[in-house]
Amino acid sequence: MTKNEYSRPDDRELLRASLRSLSAAIRPAVLFGGLVDGTGLRLSEFLGTDTASLHKVRVEPGSGLGGRVLSQRRPFLIQDYVGSDAITHEHDFAVSHERLRSMAAAPVVVRGKTRSVLYIATRGEAPLGERVLNEAMGAAAAIAVEMNIRDEVDRRLAMMAEARQPEQSFDSTWMEHVRQAHADLRSLASRVEDAELAAQLERIGGHLAPAPSAPPIAVHSLVRLTPRELDVLAQLALGCSYEETAARLALKPVTVKSYLQNAMVKLSVHNRMEAVSAARKLGLLP
Question: Which parts of the sequence belong to the HTH luxR-type domain (predicted)?
Answer without folding.
Answer: 218-283
